Amino acid sequence: MNVPKEVEGRLRRVSSRQNALVKDLRKALSQGEPTAEGHLAVEGLRMIEEAIRSGLRFQAVFFSDAGSAHATRLLPQIGSQVELLLLPDEVFLSAVSTESPQGVAALVKLRPHKFEDLLDSGPGPLLVGVAGLQDPGNLGTIIRSAEAFGARAVLLGEKTVSHFNPKTVRGSAGSLFRQPLIRVKLGESIALLKQQGVRVLATSSHKGKPLHEANFTGAAMIVVGNEGAGVPADILSLADELVTIPHSPRVESLNAGIAASILLYEAARQRKALTAD
To answer: How buried is residue 72: exposed, middle or buried, by Cβ count under 10 Å (0-12/13-18/19+)?
Structure first.
């Protein structure tokens, strides 16, 4: 192991695939769900450093023998109460999901957020609602764009893929660690938000107001639907406006993650222009 002695002394050697923490890591990554204690599994040096930078609490960090050199870089940034495990390469590989792992993974705790907090979070929020999205990469893109363009929270409706999915975590590029994400019954939540003056703008592939004519200022919520079926009819019925992104007729529709990102950019542009006036 190519690490200093003082670093090596902090690592606990675990050789069994049946170790409880190793099993938690394997299950969380393979099923894309939180552990029984609610921890998120992350892989790779960059993602773990993003989690550290975001101030998340770690339960455990796992190093393979081949990736043990990362311990020298990470340990000074990790609290002393964190479990630090050193695994044989084959045990580490049995637990992780990437094809070319970097030899480091972790279990971390996301910050909890409540829907009720949105109702008391001040005027004019920009929100995102996700209705039945199934592709984890698309969800990761939406979460990343939500943070980039100033959305206050992302509401995850029924039948939406888990934000604990490893592809969602990677696709968010660390934004998932910071952006408020709240699982909700979307229809009920939209009804409550509308009572608070939030306008609901739902995406549509072929009908609705062209993007440049839509008004995203003030309290607003952008709703994105399933990749194939779009926004469910019961949610569409609650929308104040349908918005479409003009594009070449040779393209049937845009990727859900890209469409949401374009709308979020336009919303941020309008809101910035309004405050600059």
So the answer is: middle
